[in-house]
Amino acid sequence: MGPAPGSQRLFPSGAKYAEALQHTQLCFRHPELKGAQPELTGLGLPRPISGAFASVFSLTSPTSGRRYAVKCFTRHVPDQERRYEAISSRLALLDQAELSQPWNLGFEYLPDAITVEAKRYPVLKMEWAEAVTLSSWLDDNHADRAAVDRLANRFEELTRDLAGHQIAHGDLQHGNLLVASDGTLRLVDYDGMYVPALAGLGGTERGHRNYQSPLRGNDDFGADLDRFSTWVIFLSLKAIASEPALWSRLHEPSGEFLLLAEDDFTSPAGSARLQTLLTHPDRMVSGLADQVRTLAAQPLDMLPPLTPAVPRQRPAATVITDTTAHRGTAAPGAGGLPGWMTGHVTSAASPPRTGPSAAPPDRFEIRRPLDVAVAVAWPLMLAVTVLAFFVGLSTAPFGPAAPVLAAAAFSVLGRARRPERVRARAVLSELTAERDQFDDPVKAEDKLRKDRAKLEAAETKRTADHPRAQSKLIASHQAELQQIEKRRIRERRGLDKKIAGLSEERDKALRTALAARQSAYVRNRLGRRLIAQNPPHGIGPKLAARLAAAGVRTAADFTGYRTVNNAHYNSVGAVLVLSNGRHIDVQGIGEGKAKALDFWRRQLVAAAEADQPTALTAQERLPIDRDITARSARLTTELRSVDVAAEASRTKARQALNDGQARLARENTEAGERARRQRQEFSRRAVTLQQDGARHAALSAAAETAEAHRRRLSLLRYLRFLYTGR
Q1: Which of 184, 572, 610, 631 has the fewest CB atoms within 10 Å around its CB?
Q2: Are the C-beta atoms of 525 and 517 separated by less than 8 Å?
Q3: CA angle, 164 as apex, 158 and 165 as ends, to 5°?
Q4: By C-alpha distance, which of 282, 280, 258 is closest to 138?
Q5: 573 touches 563 (CB < 8 A)
């Protein structure tokens, strides 16, 4: 039972198939495959040729003795049976007599043909081609320039066969192109082939990456699938035919490509292999390389075919001819286009305009009255000259030769008015004028080469500058992020320090408030102890009155005393130190009484301090705690603001990086697109130059012919015509 519609069927591995093929009598039903002998490895196991979708085994039929390539599928292929039926039907309609070579191999799709682990699977039975892969053939024959060139031409003919029948192989590459012993090509592996009956289906593969356009997608499927790979293969063959050493220089042993690989198409500016071909002295090779470079940047539906999709016909005889089709070079002096450009450019083979006639005349024809007059004038003038000589007219102007000169001038006039001369001059003038409309081919080609070199140098620089600009942008972004983080850390550190210091500030504020309360308590106690009511020892009422008059009434009004020298009495006195810091000298207060007052005060201070409060009340602590809490909240808010501001700066920096990267990518894409358009323009200019060069050469040759015709209408020939009619 087959898989459900739309589901993907699971297939055995190549190893499972090889195991089953050890018993072909059991695993096959088909009469030609049942009991077939597989090609074996050194270990006696069936030898597989593994691919992306299948393993291929060589089997020799026991009934017919024919050798077949049997493809056993290892992966699901959408609409597999339908595809192979359509391909088989289309190839069966091909008339072998109309093909350039027997490149198509007969095959048969056999559903449920092989049993593996009790399940049946389809196989593809194809004729075995006695041939070698293209890369193997080049390993052995690349030094034979003529053979490689013939193979390039046969490959060109094969692509014309495919294009003419709207067929695309889908995976043209060195492993699927086989070279037979007679030098003709065979195509194998039809898994991805396109035929008109499959229009509308998607592709099943992208083809070998070293032969496909970078713009080819998985779903691309149509008659133009092979166009890029045909140019790549044709370029490689023509380049090797021109210089066999390129095979050793550009090809890698066992490499999965001929001369160019995937990275040469995706990054042409940095490709050493492509640059080697672009600068090759053979103009065909460099031209083909430039074409491949241009096509690598174009969509598949814009790629031109390698050759026209119709059989090539030789052009009618014209001034410009193409006598070297398939050889790729124009015949010397012919001014023709290379065969590889046929079908891709407007033909330059139209003959130059040459006035009323296709070619100017080179002989005089019917005599006219003026010619008769000239013919009569010559004998007459000669007679006059002889007579003048004998009569002695040698002293006249020009002497006796005057009549002859007059006859010669009359002859020149007659010849100049001949229609043959008029037509010859007109043809020569027209050809010269038309030729002069074209730029000098050598100078134009040199300018194109310089323009191309300038573009490629700019592209090489741009390709190198782009990653540097990206790196510079990223480095600038990283530096900015570092500055943002440093600033965030610095600001957070300052705020964290302030927050950590709030506890100490609270303690300090509480201590300060307690000290202020204690000081106020002591001052209050001292202020209630009047000196007059409780005088210290030795202080009487009079002295207390003097102290009160000086402003010292209580213990709070002074803080101590200071001794002073009494110079008048040569003794030591004392002054009291008020609470405001002033000093007063009270009559009767000497050093002894000052000491008594100070001792009395210190006793009162000690007593007050013993009773002073040792802690603040909750009400007294409340404003301090509120202030600290408010400051902590503000600092915490500032701390969060620092993180928010840093994140905003990082977001802005990331946006600037993204914008910068997008700008660089856009500029790079736009520059690449401009370069692609310039390369296309250069390719168009190259084609135009070839056409113009061919036209210029043809016109130059035609002008030389016209000049030769004009020279043949000389005065002597004119005189001969006058008397002989020839």
Answers
A1: 610
A2: no
A3: 100
A4: 258
A5: yes
Q: What pLDDT score was predicted for residue 350?
A: 40
Structure token pair of residue 207? 């083809």
Mean pLDDT confidence for 511-518 = 94
- pTM for the whole structure: 0.46
DSSP 530: B
Q: What is the SS3 assignment for 294?
A: helix
Please say whether the beta carbons of 531 and 548 come within 8 A. Answer: yes
- 3-class DSSP state of 446: helix
Compute the half-sphere exposure of residue 93: CA atoms within 13 Å on the CB side of its CA. Answer: 12
Angle at 618 between CA 616 and CA 619, to 5 degrees: 95
Could you tell me where the DSSP H helices lie in 180-300?
A: 227-242, 245-250, 262-266, 272-278, 283-295
Q: Report pLDDT for 478.
A: 92
Q: How far is C-alpha 725 from the geometric centre of its chain's CA atoms?
A: 74
Q: What does each C-alpha distance from 14 to 2, 33, 175, 188 come to in angstroms?
A: 20, 18, 19, 19
Count, in order, helices (H) and strands (E) of the chain.
Answer: 18, 12
Q: Give which of 645, 659, 663, 642 is closest to 477, Cα–Cα.
A: 659
Separation between Cα atoms, residue 229 and residue 226, nearest integer Å: 5
Q: In what helix (H) or strand (E) does residue 495 lie, and over which residues does it extend?
A: helix 441-527
Query: For the segment 439-453, what is each residue's pLDDT rounded down to a tens digit?
Result: 788 888 888 888 888
Number of C-beta neighbours around residue 516 at 10 A: 12
Q: Where are the alpha helices (DSSP H) in 528-576?
A: 541-549
Whole-number CA gyration radius for the chain: 56
The helix-helix angle for 419-436 and 618-712 (nearest 10°) equals 160
Tokens representing 434?
A: 């038309």
Location of structure tokens 């192989």: 169
- Cα(587)–Cα(601) distance, rounded to whole angstroms? 20
For 420, the token pair is 């043959």
Comparing 220-224, 319-323, 384-388, 496-500, which segment has the lowest mean pLDDT?
319-323
Residue with tokens 């040759």: 701
Pair 722, 364: CB distance under 8 Å? no
pLDDT band for position 429 (cuts 50, 70, 90): confident
Cα atoms in the Cβ-side hemisphere of radius 13 Å centred on 191: 23
Interval 38-56: pLDDT, tens: 998 888 889 888 777 788 9
**The CA-based dihedral angle spanning residues 533, 536, 538, 544, taken in that order and rounded to the nearest 10 degrees:** -40
Would you state the pLDDT for residue 506? Answer: 93
